[in-house]
Every structure is written in C-alpha cells, then in structure tokens.
Amino acid sequence: MIKTPTYEKIRALKLYAMSRALEEQQEKKEYERLSFEERLGMLVDREYSERENKRLAGRIKQAKFKQQACMEDIDYQQSRNLDKSLIRSFAGCQWIKDKLNILITGLTGSGKTYITSALGHRACLEGYRVLYFRATRLFHDLAIAQGDGSYDRLMNSMAKADLLVIDDFGLSALTDQHRKDFLEILEDRHDIHSTIVASQLPIDHWHEVIGNATLADAILDRLVHNAYKINLKGGSMRRKNSKLK
User: Fold this and answer.
1) Can you give the pTM of this predicted structure?
2) Euclidean distance between CA atoms 221 and 89, whole angstroms
3) Stretch 143-162: mean pLDDT, rounded?
4) H helices of the chain, where?
5) Nearest-CA neighbor of 129 among 56, 48, 189, 49?
C-alpha cells in the first residue's frame, strides 16, 4: 500500500475509489506508458463512477420498488396492446421533465407492476428521486403517520419526489380521509412533478371508486388530463412466466 502524504490526504478527503485506483496504477507497470493527464483522468473517472453508483443504489433503495424491473426486459408481445415505440420514448424521461403523468390499467397479472417499476427504475438511472407505494399501503402509512406525528414529513417526502408511483389503485373504495389525503398529494404535485398510477379498473371507473363526486372531480382533474394512458390487454403474465406448467 502506498504511504505518502498525498495518499493520506486523498484518504482524508474521502476519495476512497481514487485511492484504490492510485494503488492499482502504482502496482501495474502498464500504467507507466500513460501520460499524467491520462492517469489523472482515470483516477477521477473511478471516483466519479463509484459515487454515481452509490447514489443510484441509494435512490433505488429509497424508492422501495415491489420488484426489480428494467425497461429493456419489458415484454412487447402483441396481445398486450403495448405500444413499443411509446414505452421506449419514456426512456429519456422527458415526460418527467415535462411534469406529465402515466396511467396504466389492465387486469390482474397483465404486467402493470413490472412496467411501473421499470419506469421508476429508469427514472432512478436518470438521477430522479422516486417513491413507490401500493395504494393500500400508502393510505395505511398515512393513517399511521397521523397518529405518530410523522404525517407532515411523509406528505412532504411525496410532494418532493420527482416521480411518485401508486400501484394497485382502486382495489377498495376510498374513505373520506383517503380522498382528502389523495387530493392533497396530487395538489402538491400537480404541474410540479410526475405521477404514475396503475389500476385494475378502467379509468372511467375511478370516479366511482373515489366516491365523493366533488373530490373525485378534483382528483381526476389533477391526474388524468395531463397523462399518457396505457390499457394493457391479454392474459396473466404470471401464468405465462410460471415455472409450473
């Protein structure tokens, strides 16, 4: 191991990846034929890459996706009614820059969760902060937060997320508190950040499951009109991909 004042200063500055890369350069003779600028560039690249990878891992961990997914592995079989060109256009996350939403509907097992997770993962890769919730867990967490004093902190975290993913929306009717919370969440995010909502129910039925006509109008007005809409068709992807035949 190199024991020089410069090395110790590099460690003191917490440039740990750079220090490891410097050790490699000192140990391997092939680096000797490189110029100073080339070797310095390699040191900086190593530190930058490792820090970016740690930040990415942190964003993915914070998002709490239900499953691991990536856009490259999305199944575009024709029977699913999935527009390949549209989905691929989301890869650059311009829709997040434009503060647009995505609404995904389809029967259970049609792949909604995988697609929402893949879109969220892509957003993490592009440096965006993402939060993923199943709707029932979201409202449960909000109810708990009301009791333990963390409600404002949870609401603020959702308001600040670049992308909020709400999966399995509409599995049960919303209570009055659910409606108020949902409207507050969308009000904080409208025209500021993007939201993905996935549901087994067609969008035309969301008004009914929300319940209160006035609040339903307000919620859907903030969610639907600036959203891409994807309606998945076909049978269960779980059955198709099952190892049991």
Assistant:
1) 0.81
2) 25
3) 95
4) 5-12, 16-27, 36-63, 84-89, 94-97, 112-125, 135-148, 151-160, 176-189, 206-210, 213-223, 237-241
5) 56
The pair of structure tokens assigned to 200 is 């087994």
Question: Which CATH number is 64-241 given?
Answer: 3.40.50.300
Distance, CA of 76 to CA of 78 (rounded, Å): 6
Domain residue extents for the chain: 5-62, 64-241
Inter-residue contact 104 to 198 (CB < 8 Å): yes
pLDDT computed for residue 27 by the predictor: 82
Q: Using the 8-state DSSP alphabet, how is residue 126 labeled?
A: T
* Whole-Å CA distances, 93 to 51, 88, 151, 182, 225: 22, 10, 30, 24, 19
Residue with tokens 């209160």: 212
The count of C-alpha atoms lying within 13 angstroms of the C-alpha of 214, restricted to the half-sphere facing its C-beta, is 2
Question: How many residues in total does the chain contain?
Answer: 245
CA–CA distance, 31 with 172 (Å, rounded to integer): 63
Q: How far apart are CA 19 and CA 6, in angstroms?
A: 10
Rounded-to-integer distance, Cα 44 and Cα 168, Å: 44
Instruction: Copy the structure tokens of residue 205.
Output: 């039925």
Strand partners, 231: 105
Q: Any idea what the Cα angle at residue 110 is, between residues 73 and 224, rounded to 5°?
A: 95
Q: What's the rounded Cα separation, in Å, for the pair 141 and 221?
A: 25
pLDDT value, residue 117:
96
Largest pairwise CA distance in the chain: 74
